[in-house]
Amino acid sequence: MTKPKDSLATELFSELFMAEQLARHQLTRALPKGMELSQFSVLNHIAGTTDPRTPAQIARTFNLTKGAITNTLRKLEWAGHVNVNPDWDDARRKLITISPAGRMARDSALEKIAPIAENLLTKFGSEELRKVIPILRDLRIKLSKKL
Question: Would you give the distance in Å from CA 65 to the centre of its chain?
Protein backbone atom coordinates (compact mmCIF):
# COMPACT_ATOMS: atom_id res chain seq x y z
CA MET A 1 0.00 0.00 0.00
CA THR A 2 1.44 3.39 -0.98
CA LYS A 3 1.16 6.45 1.18
CA PRO A 4 -0.71 9.51 -0.04
CA LYS A 5 1.55 12.26 -1.40
CA ASP A 6 0.81 14.62 1.47
CA SER A 7 1.82 11.96 3.98
CA LEU A 8 5.04 11.30 2.07
CA ALA A 9 5.87 15.00 1.98
CA THR A 10 5.10 15.36 5.69
CA GLU A 11 7.31 12.39 6.50
CA LEU A 12 10.14 13.70 4.29
CA PHE A 13 10.15 17.16 5.84
CA SER A 14 9.72 15.78 9.33
CA GLU A 15 12.83 13.60 8.91
CA LEU A 16 14.80 16.46 7.35
CA PHE A 17 13.88 18.85 10.17
CA MET A 18 14.71 16.34 12.89
CA ALA A 19 18.05 15.41 11.27
CA GLU A 20 18.89 19.10 10.84
CA GLN A 21 18.06 19.85 14.47
CA LEU A 22 20.15 16.94 15.76
CA ALA A 23 23.10 17.80 13.52
CA ARG A 24 22.91 21.49 14.48
CA HIS A 25 22.86 20.58 18.18
CA GLN A 26 25.87 18.26 17.94
CA LEU A 27 27.89 20.66 15.80
CA THR A 28 27.11 23.66 18.01
CA ARG A 29 28.27 21.78 21.10
CA ALA A 30 31.51 20.75 19.37
CA LEU A 31 32.50 24.17 18.02
CA PRO A 32 35.21 26.15 19.81
CA LYS A 33 33.96 28.30 22.69
CA GLY A 34 32.27 31.46 21.45
CA MET A 35 31.86 30.32 17.84
CA GLU A 36 28.32 30.09 16.53
CA LEU A 37 27.30 27.65 13.81
CA SER A 38 26.38 30.56 11.52
CA GLN A 39 29.89 31.98 11.97
CA PHE A 40 31.51 28.64 11.21
CA SER A 41 29.33 28.23 8.12
CA VAL A 42 30.36 31.62 6.76
CA LEU A 43 34.05 31.06 7.57
CA ASN A 44 33.94 27.66 5.92
CA HIS A 45 32.30 29.14 2.83
CA ILE A 46 34.75 32.05 2.55
CA ALA A 47 37.71 29.70 3.11
CA GLY A 48 36.63 27.76 0.03
CA THR A 49 36.55 30.78 -2.27
CA THR A 50 39.51 32.32 -4.05
CA ASP A 51 38.08 35.79 -4.65
CA PRO A 52 36.74 38.24 -2.07
CA ARG A 53 32.96 38.06 -1.64
CA THR A 54 30.47 40.84 -1.03
CA PRO A 55 27.97 40.56 1.82
CA ALA A 56 25.20 40.31 -0.79
CA GLN A 57 26.91 37.34 -2.45
CA ILE A 58 27.34 35.59 0.90
CA ALA A 59 23.71 36.33 1.80
CA ARG A 60 22.53 34.76 -1.49
CA THR A 61 24.65 31.68 -0.84
CA PHE A 62 22.92 31.12 2.51
CA ASN A 63 19.50 32.36 1.33
CA LEU A 64 19.55 35.12 3.96
CA THR A 65 18.91 38.82 3.87
CA LYS A 66 21.88 41.14 3.60
CA GLY A 67 21.00 42.44 7.08
CA ALA A 68 21.13 38.96 8.59
CA ILE A 69 24.50 38.16 7.06
CA THR A 70 25.86 41.59 8.04
CA ASN A 71 25.25 40.72 11.70
CA THR A 72 27.30 37.52 11.36
CA LEU A 73 30.03 39.33 9.42
CA ARG A 74 30.28 42.01 12.13
CA LYS A 75 30.81 39.32 14.76
CA LEU A 76 33.43 37.64 12.60
CA GLU A 77 35.18 40.96 11.95
CA TRP A 78 35.13 41.83 15.67
CA ALA A 79 36.73 38.42 16.41
CA GLY A 80 39.39 39.11 13.77
CA HIS A 81 38.25 36.22 11.57
CA VAL A 82 37.40 38.20 8.45
CA ASN A 83 38.74 41.31 6.76
CA VAL A 84 36.17 43.82 5.53
CA ASN A 85 37.65 46.08 2.87
CA PRO A 86 36.18 48.69 0.55
CA ASP A 87 35.53 47.74 -3.06
CA TRP A 88 37.60 50.29 -4.94
CA ASP A 89 35.46 49.80 -8.06
CA ASP A 90 32.20 50.53 -6.21
CA ALA A 91 32.49 52.49 -2.95
CA ARG A 92 29.03 51.31 -1.84
CA ARG A 93 30.23 47.71 -1.56
CA LYS A 94 32.48 45.91 0.88
CA LEU A 95 34.68 42.92 0.09
CA ILE A 96 35.05 40.09 2.59
CA THR A 97 38.06 37.81 2.90
CA ILE A 98 39.06 35.35 5.58
CA SER A 99 41.94 36.44 7.79
CA PRO A 100 44.76 34.15 8.94
CA ALA A 101 43.10 34.05 12.38
CA GLY A 102 39.81 33.15 10.69
CA ARG A 103 41.44 30.32 8.78
CA MET A 104 42.93 29.03 12.05
CA ALA A 105 39.53 29.30 13.80
CA ARG A 106 37.85 27.46 10.93
CA ASP A 107 40.51 24.73 10.96
CA SER A 108 40.15 24.40 14.73
CA ALA A 109 36.38 24.06 14.33
CA LEU A 110 36.85 21.39 11.66
CA GLU A 111 39.08 19.44 14.05
CA LYS A 112 36.43 19.66 16.77
CA ILE A 113 33.58 18.47 14.53
CA ALA A 114 35.64 15.74 12.83
CA PRO A 115 34.67 13.10 15.43
CA ILE A 116 30.99 13.68 14.62
CA ALA A 117 31.66 13.05 10.94
CA GLU A 118 33.83 10.03 11.76
CA ASN A 119 31.05 8.63 13.92
CA LEU A 120 28.58 8.94 11.03
CA LEU A 121 31.09 7.32 8.70
CA THR A 122 31.50 4.42 11.12
CA LYS A 123 27.75 3.97 11.55
CA PHE A 124 26.79 4.24 7.88
CA GLY A 125 29.91 3.44 5.90
CA SER A 126 31.38 5.54 3.13
CA GLU A 127 29.31 3.91 0.38
CA GLU A 128 26.00 4.75 2.07
CA LEU A 129 27.06 8.34 2.70
CA ARG A 130 28.29 8.71 -0.89
CA LYS A 131 24.83 7.63 -2.05
CA VAL A 132 22.91 10.09 0.11
CA ILE A 133 25.03 13.21 -0.54
CA PRO A 134 23.96 13.64 -4.20
CA ILE A 135 20.32 13.18 -3.20
CA LEU A 136 20.59 15.82 -0.48
CA ARG A 137 22.46 18.15 -2.85
CA ASP A 138 19.80 17.71 -5.53
CA LEU A 139 17.06 18.33 -2.96
CA ARG A 140 18.83 21.52 -1.82
CA ILE A 141 19.24 22.76 -5.38
CA LYS A 142 15.62 22.08 -6.24
CA LEU A 143 14.38 23.71 -3.05
CA SER A 144 16.53 26.76 -3.78
CA LYS A 145 14.68 27.11 -7.08
CA LYS A 146 11.42 27.20 -5.13
CA LEU A 147 9.77 24.06 -6.46
Answer: 15
